[in-house]
Amino acid sequence: MIVLLLHGYGSNGADLISLAPHWQQTVPDALFLAPNAPQRCGGTRSGYQWWPLSAFTPQALASGAATAAPAINAFIDRKLAQYGLGERNLVIVGFSQGTMMALHVGLRRETQVAGILGYSGMLTGAVELAHQRITKPPVLLLHGSADPVVPVSALHAAEHVLRRLGIDVATHVSVGLGHSVDPVGLRMGAEFVGRVLNGGASPDNGDK
Fold this sequence. Notes:
This protein is an alpha/beta fold. It is built from seven helices and eight strands, in the order E-H-H-E-E-E-H-E-H-E-H-E-H-E-H. The strands form two sheets. The chain has a six-stranded parallel β-sheet, sandwiched between helices. Strand 6, helix 5 (126-129) and strand 7 form a beta-alpha-beta unit. The relative contact order is 0.15.
């Protein structure tokens, strides 16, 4: 089993791998991987980006995610082959820009992954999804109601599009939380990862 953790803009894999100790008891056999994004983020010594966030229009975000996707797909292919695993053994987890990448890559993999878990992010390329060949893994999206970076409205917009596409999506909004992950989000993430990797049912609905 692999839990792939995709960090946010200006962060790095070492930051997001901090989720692993909270989830290892739920999935003790899982390998947690948190690669750095391929591009250095200007102005920081240890920060990386999946693509430069120079524009925030839907078109620019969709284009950026599409440009960054091949590197993540190549990493996934390499690791699945290295460990003799298939997509059913893979959960993709993202935070912020990493959530954009988790959704972009996870929904477009040729074979369906076990699940997609996204914190504090958004869905890019929503218009194109309706016309593309996609898979429909279970999705759990979590967000803070007071997020000043990615508004919580992004969660509701993503949920609307994913449901319309027939994807089993659950959401949770943590009241008063900013651009972060709280203990409730950690717990729900652990439960989701354990359920989908152990062949369980669809995600529970959280507080909408």
